[in-house]
């Protein structure tokens, strides 16, 4: 059986794992990132992390058929360059070339982390069996990855697949990107928390106050928890939030008409209850309701391993 | 040189033309459509139109390498079926099979007309030289066609590529599709006319009244004409309209990051003045403004021949 290494670069840590061709992680470990240091430091650490997991797994360099790297930001995959990654202080960073100074193999690839996760889900997770699928991650922001005809589609120089920055309310809420009304400004966990806080301020008797106190803060679960206990204000927050997510999902369905839409990220931990609400919205509003094929909305299934498996799958899919 | 036939089905007429492999029309003609009659009547007329143009051009059946058909509505291209076309009374209509009862050749293909036009522009028009391009047609509605990696992308059963039904203002204007706030409800000629009429009602002294009287009606040109003559109310209508078009175009750029966005349809007759306004909006608002590659907005160039050349190019591209 072939083995691959998947490396998942985050703002705080780098995860790396050895993944077999069936998408199973054999062995994994992490190291810290230091965004303030030169990128060559991180690349050296990444390489040493690979050496460590190889040793832990009892495998040699020659046993690895390829290395895939997932990283937030805009990635020019064909050139192995990170054009821009805000939190990591990367700017036109030739990460693949730098990594190859240590790793003496040609099969090293890099992609945006949401694109990697989309590919991982397509090959080994909830996207299996579909031809076109769209992956959405609902976290601090709204990320997206598109698998079209079995391949990542990211547009020119990897600068596409930014569905979070599709405006759904022209002149609406300010977005970090400079526009107003982006999907991310309504459907991210950040937006949900903002809306939860507003509703709490207006409803001093809402259960949300008690639940937030238990968590020690207002997080993305407060409104969902309270809504399940039939709190009126919380139910309105959840209803609005589902509408915002649904609006963007239906937009993407009308554009791509994929086989499946996969939902990942922290908010997807709300599980079936949550997915069913989005599915209901989609069934009602997708274009050509009674004629066009329905699109399944499913929860992404690789969860915490999505980063490593997704990155490794990048090398498998070449 | 190889020759193809392109057939463009419309609500009132069918156009057919013989197109050479360089995308030039050798000969063309039209016949009427009768949407109230059974589709087999139209298909027989279509075939006879093909026979006529072959005869006019002095070519024989054997000289034609393939036939492409463009039709409005949802087209299941792989099966040669028109799933649904509102104005033409088609519903799961096996048009290709019916046509092959007369036309004794295997190379007969069908696609949505906007997808055909997109392919035609990509091969022979303003889309030449790009890898991914997006075609938008601004007319009664807002149509779209996506060329990704040199091929039409239309999603499952051809039910995608409906960018006109991407919501840009949640809870906004009613759209014909049942949702509220679709791009089509803001960026179509229909929407422009609605907005022009509103502005005229509010501004009895506006030049738009005189210009509309000259046209004998309020059409999509009234506001543009008056704006060029510095009419204040008209300039506001145009400014808003550009913003609506720009909003959807930027959304699509953030999603696809294509090489080019091509604008066609009646409104594109406003020409350079109009295209430049959209380009300026796009340059300002596309995601990652200073880092990501700029996307060129250009006017579609095949104009009235887009339907025939686009349909023919469908057969060429197989």
Low-confidence stretches of chain A at least 5 residues in length (pLDDT < 50)? none
Average residue-wise pLDDT of chain A: 96
Beta-strand level of the residues of chain A, as a percent range? 15-25%
The number of E-state strands of chain A comes to 13
| Spatial strand arrangement across the major sheet of chain A | 3-2-1-4-8
Helix count of chain A? Answer: 10
Distance between the termini of chain A: 17 Å
Please identify the structural class of chain A as seen in this structure: alpha/beta
Oligomer: homodimer
Shape of chain A: globular
Largest sheet of chain A: 5 strands, mixed
Estimated radius of gyration of chain A? 20 Å
Roughly what percent helix of chain A? Answer: 25-40%
Q: Which H/E pattern describes the elements of chain A?
A: EEEHEEEEHEHEEEHHHHHEHEH
Of all protein chain pairs, which has the greatest interface, and how many residues does each chain bring to it? A-B, 49 and 48 residues
Explain this structure:
Chain A has 318 residues and is α/β, with parallel strands linked by helices. Chain A has helices at residues 39-57, 95-100, 113-124, 184-187, 189-202, 207-215, 222-228, 232-256, 272-285, 306-316, and strands at residues 3-9, 13-20, 25-32, 64-71, 74-76, 81-85, 90-93, 108-112, 133-138, 142-148, 151-153, 260-264, 296-299. Helices cover 38% and strands 23% of the residues of chain A. A 5-stranded mixed β-sheet of chain A has the order 3-2-1-4-8. In chain A, strand 5 and strand 6 (81-85) form a beta hairpin. The longest helix of chain A has 25 residues, at 232-256. Chain A has 10 helices and 13 strands. At the A-B interface, helix 8 of A face helix 8 of B.
